[in-house]
Amino acid sequence: MKNFLLICIMFTMSFAFAQIPSGSGVYLNKLIVSPNGDDLTNEYIEIRGTADAIIPSDLYLINVEGDGEGDRNDFGQVGEVIQLGDGTRTFGSNGFLSIVANYTDENTNVVTTNPYTNVISSGTTIVTIELIGNDVTGSSSSNVSSFTPDIGYDGNFEDWSATYMLIQAPSNPSGIDIDADDDGVIDATGDHTMWTRYDSVSFLDEDDLLGNVDPNDGTDFGEFGYGQIIVVRDAAENAGLFFTDTGATVIENTGSNVHFWGRQGTSTGFSASDWIAASFDGTGPNWEFSDNTARVSPAEFASYIIPSEIYGALNPTAALLSVTEQELTDDISFFPNPTNNVININSKNDIISSIEIVDVTGKILVQKKSDLDVVDLTAFSTGLYYMNVYGDGSKITKAIVKN
């Protein structure tokens, strides 16, 4: 009999994940692996490392299958493998690596360009995969006939349920089974014990709940997550969702699947406060997070609209957004943005009482209660900042870029 571990929401045990040795210094910064619209040009992968450092050729981003459908037994197996380094590729001068894809229809020669390339921050190393296929709207690997360069990414990374791991391995890990006995726990022996794991996250949907019976597939085995932090869908309603280890931090996403993963600021850990997990709507790159706080973690990110300037940069923290935001009105404008020196603030009707400039971790760098029509950023380093404008009992926040 399979020995499954029932989900318990939000707890941690100290003995977790000893099966795969841990490393530090390389992190999953953003993952958009099942966006709205066409996966083949709207997915986005972003890795954070050391500025200008060579990316080892044995550094991989992998997914581990987590769907326990009754007609399959590959849960726990490594599926797709993206080789991040080639011996010469480096992290950008800002410490980031981004992977995106364009698509050319082989019948019409129509090119669909991904929405991220033109907004990714200067200094980021960008790997653009050129896909050729028969239907960009198909959103399936079957709609891709070739991809260049071949780093193992075809524009459609494995969707839910799956675990996404950033690992260093002595050889390509494709097909390795980290859960050979299918009990939902990473095995203590096997090839994976020779890996170094830098980061891992999971999302579990609910289409293969334990005990579900499909007349064609038989009885399902549940949903399997092998990450150090796991988002599960509707766990409170479904006792048949399972995960790997009592050491995982588990977050519930109610009523929807997760579209966006991201680390908060410079975080490196696996508590809920280290991560952002959200369902979203709209179109990329300015995806809009759900306004339902049950579908966004932490809740401060509800209704957050991703600014273009955030790609190839650190994500904001919940602390940065801890005051309820309202959308910018036509009465307030900020210009120029990006800027080389100053930001001008033009307010027609709103009464501004104070202005703050904060970094992506929420640290306050500037506070002003007078001369509120201009902020001088001349002395600031290049990068992404946020301007908080307070007035009339409310707050609005604007992402700004210093060139």
From TrEMBL:
Top-level division of the source organism's lineage: Bacteria
Secretion system C-terminal sorting domain residues: 335-400
Protein keywords: Signal
Coiled coil regions, renumbered to chain: none
Signal sequence, start to end: 1-18
Keyword field contains Signal: yes
A Pfam cross-reference name: Por_Secre_tail
Cited InterPro entries: Secre_tail
Name under which the protein is recorded: Por secretion system C-terminal sorting domain-containing protein
Protein species of origin: Aquimarina amphilecti
Lineage, opening ranks: Bacteria, Pseudomonadati, Bacteroidota, Flavobacteriia, Flavobacteriales
